[in-house]
Amino acid sequence: MLVSAARKAGTSLLRSGLLTTALILAASPVAMNLQPASAQMVSTADPDLMVLELQILQDEIIKGNLEAYNLLQPSLIVIGRRFLRLDPELWKLEKNSRAAVSFMLSGGSGSVFQELAVQGVKFTGDPNLFAGAMAYSQGNRQMALSLLLKVDPITLPVAVAGQVALAQAILISNNDPAGAQRYFDLARLMMPGTLVEESALRRQAPMVAELGDTEKFERLSRRYLFQYSSSVFASEFRDTVADVISGSDYLKKEDEWDRVFQLVSEFDEESQSILLLRLAKAALISGNTAFAVKGSAAFLDLNSDDAERVSEAKLYFSAAKASGEEWEQAISGLVEVKAADLSAGNQLIQTAAIAMANTIREWPQPETPAASEFVPYVPHVGLEEKLYDTEALVPFKSALNDADEALKEAEF
Q: CA-CA distance, 266 to 141, in Å (whole number)?
């Protein structure tokens, strides 16, 4: 890709001094105390090169460089102020206007270009793209959406197309997650190996899981964990993946353990331990006993020395078998787990699982209905109104009256 080639060529020249330069600029009182633009015109600076420097800083972020992450916002401020000092004629070049768009979509302030516009600076390029990027940078989502949707990212140079597609996806996703998928896909395909792809994957993966596409979720998650496992945001993404695959909706749709376990195995051992326990418990509660057994067994295979976690895994393993043919083994396993080692919630699971296993063991007893169920209901009042032939009761009433008289005269 052209972006990758350009970035590789520039990296060897810029990377070694980039962080030091950014630190100096960010801390410099000259940079922070802006002088009037007319007194500091710079005609030799290149906006395109400034944005390339910014993108190299972003590359460091996805490699896990916390220093680069902390420098991002100060660098955006410094670059914005450098833009204000440029010769206005430079903005007539379309590549520089695109650099401005890239700057704003990367988190830079659109107020820089509002100030330049007040000074009479003219920008070349698609007005919808420029104004949409400015609205996006200022948090005006409704206006940004209406303007950026008029722009087709496929018609733009690759260097900015991915950023535009990502911004479109983010803006659309709130109201139309399914419709946003095309734009997330475009962003990833146009700028692979960059913060744009990293950001797109981080947002898109949980979204497709919620839409029910578990296979795509797993594919995107594996791509992220393979390419961006060291990213500053990787820990946050792992938590998101854990929340998704241990959720009941996901477990009801998923039935291929090997594929899920392959995804889990991408985590470090500590994360695997936590995730496997969460997965086993969520699977047990949602009724996916096969996953509960395999998840808890996979945890036990890690040979953890955490006694509390081991007890928890043994509980889930045995409880998942309580309603099946291995109920005898389940009872033994459940009894072996000490209730004192379990949380209050897991103690309830233990009690319920033991009760379930015992119901499997007991011979079913037929229900004995109450005798009253076989006696027809006779209302105390209003019986005559319920009959079609009320004269049918006359002989019985006469017999009852005679019986009453006889009982009165009887001597007991």
A: 36
Q: Which of 256, 265, 179, 165 is nearest to 222 (CA)?
A: 265
287-310 pLDDT, tens digit per residue, is: 888 888 999 999 999 998 898 999
What is the H or E stretch that residue 173 is in? helix 158-173
Measured between alpha carbons, how far is 213 from 330 in angstroms, rounded to an integer?
34
Write the single-letter amino acid at 141: R
Would you list the domain boundaries of the chain? 1-124
CA distance 225 to 219: 10
Task: For 215-262, give the DSSP string.
Answer: HHHHHHHHHHHHH-TTSTTHHHHHHHHHHHHTSHHHHHH---HHHHHH
Give the CA diameter of the chain: 133
- Token pair 């009982």 is found at 407
Please answer whether residues 319 and 334 qualify as being in contact, where contact means their C-beta atoms are separated by less than 8 angstroms.
yes
pTM above 0.70, yes or no: no
As a whole number of angstroms, the distance between CA 241 and CA 201 comes to 12
d(CA 371, CA 349): 38
d(CA 133, CA 167): 9
Q: What percent of the chain stands above pLDDT 90? A: 41
23 contact partners, CB below 8 Å, separation of at least 6: 71
Q: What is the SS3 assignment for 42?
A: strand
The Cα–Cα gap between 103 and 50 comes to: 9
pLDDT tens digits along 363-401: 666 665 655 555 555 555 555 555 555 566 677 677 777
**Tokens 């944005």 sit on residue:** 51
